[in-house]
Design brief:
This protein is α+β, with helices and mostly antiparallel strands. The protein is built from 12 helices and 19 strands.
Length: 455
């Protein structure tokens, strides 16, 4: 058993800093790197991509990243865990296999393929069997939106990841794997923790929670003393140094920007926390009130004393469904009387939409520079601020009505208040709205599968 395992956070979301995982691999010693690509809305996006192209449906950025760092990972024996597979996990794994072959790494790379989270094709089966699937926030039954569902994915925990590591996988690709499980699994694999050792599983889960958002725990998006965070252009992403007893240190590579301190870790711990005594994951119910943090040196915070409780009998399911159409457009009005001009343009546009008889679920106006961030809490603006952006959005069930709205914004340029700019981008884009339907499903209904592909 190792005395210490280093797990690096390399990606907080699909679209995060492309250089971060490269620098995690090349900037110092690590044993594992977790890469979190999926959010709730991402699942519906990749599902739509696969509907258009059966070979799509996964994070292609991950494939490009592997092309760059796979030789380093093989040389240094760094293992990668990711949920980049989206809704086409096997397609993603095959793409990684092709990359390994292109790089001349045949026989040197084992790819773990974790499936079982995608239950889109099983929803009707569950309903026929009498399984109640309801929105856990509103109580609405699945039947109310069944014909609009685009994706349905179970949040899987660390168990299949540990199985893949036990089978020798160096690169693991899955679908809706929890971001916490991507960090917990290496610790369980290396230290031999059991899934009913709730305190250690809770510690590994909280370690994952701390690094799941990448640079957010090492100085990025940092409210406290943000002006004095050094060199954010070269921010170092977080690394967990874990010990067999469940204690760990949060740090980052030397000679990188950002900062790891107690304040930065506290801010990340509060992210999506919910009930601090019951942070529920597929693996454990973690108790955040038991977390102890102490300074362990420059850019080092020790975390210890964590307690956990038995996990629940349910998996959470992320269901995304089509919920109409939207479009958002902007115009900018300048001094003098910029705010008055923007308000007048808003009034004129609303009158014209009403005259056309267009139906919308919501019409939303924001005056950027006045109240877009704080809404009614913003108070009265300065007497005559120099410029205001009118941001006007509509949402509705009729795509035709939303499309017609997009043709009504530009005419304001010559038929509305003066001193307007910011219209060079053309008409607003009509976008389909994806709504979120969170639910619970008994774990006994879900079967995971782990396959090893050798390059």
């Amino acid at each position: 058993m190792k005395e210490k395992v280093r797990v690096a956070g390399g990606q907080g979301f699909w679209g995060d800093l492309l250089t971060a995982p490269v620098e995690q691999v090349r900037g110092g010693q690590i044993d594992y790197m977790m890469l979190d690509y999926l959010a709730e809305v991402t699942m519906s996006i990749v599902q739509k991509q696969r509907q258009r192209d059966p070979n799509a449906g996964f994070a292609r950025d991950f494939v490009a990243l592997m092309r760059e760092i796979l030789p380093d990972c093989v040389e240094k024996n760094i293992k990668i865990l990711s949920n980049a597979g989206g809704v086409n996990v096997k397609g993603c794994a095959e793409a990684i296999k092709d990359v390994a072959n292109e790089l001349g790494l045949q026989g040197k790379v084992k790819i773990g393929v974790v499936t079982g989270d995608d239950i889109l094709e099983r929803l009707d089966e569950f309903t026929d069997r009498g399984v109640e699937i309801t929105n856990m926030e509103t109580g609405e039954p699945l039947s109310a939106i069944r014909d609009k569902v685009q994706s349905a994915n179970v949040y899987l925990g660390a168990q299949p990841l540990v199985e893949a590591l036990d089978k020798g996988a160096q690169i693991i690709v899955g679908g809706r794997l929890t971001d916490t499980g991507l960090t917990l699994a290496p610790l369980m694999h290396e230290f031999g923790w059991t899934f009913d050792d709730w305190d250690k599983v809770s510690a590994g889960t909280i370690a994952g929670h701390i690094i799941e958002c990448g640079g957010q725990s090492s100085g990025g998006n940092f409210q406290y003393d943000w002006k004095n965070i050094p060199n954010l252009a070269n921010i170092g992403f977080p690394i967990i140094e874990a010990a067999p007893n469940g204690e760990f240190v949060v740090t980052k590579h030397d000679n990188t920007g950002g900062r790891v301190n107690i304040q930065s870790i506290k801010e990340q711990l509060l992210y999506e926390m919910g009930d601090p005594k019951a942070y529920i994951t597929p693996d454990v119910v973690a108790d955040f009130t038991t977390i102890n943090l102490i300074d362990d040196g420059e850019n080092r915070v020790k975390v210890f004393g964590i307690k956990g409780h038995p996990n629940t009998e349910f998996y959470k399911v992320s269901i995304a469904y089509s919920a109409g159409w939207k479009a958002v457009g902007t115009l900018v009005y300048s001094y003098p009387q910029a705010y008055e001009k923007a308000k007048a343009a808003d009034h004129i546009l609303r009158q014209r939409l009403e005259k056309l008889g267009l139906k919308f679920d919501v019409i939303l106006t924001e005056f950027v520079g006045v109240n877009a961030t704080h809404g009614h809490l913003s108070g009265e603006p300065l007497p005559d601020i120099p410029e205001v952006q009118l941001r006007f959005g509509v949402r509705g069930q009729s795509k035709a009505d939303v499309e017609r709205f997009t043709k009504e914004l530009a005419p304001l340029i010559l038929t509305g208040p003066p001193s307007v700019t910011g219209f060079a981008g053309g008409r607003p884009k009509v976008e389909e709205i994806m709504a979120y339907f969170p639910a619970l499903i008994p774990k006994t209904l879900i079967e995971t599968n782990v396959e090893i592909i050798e390059a």
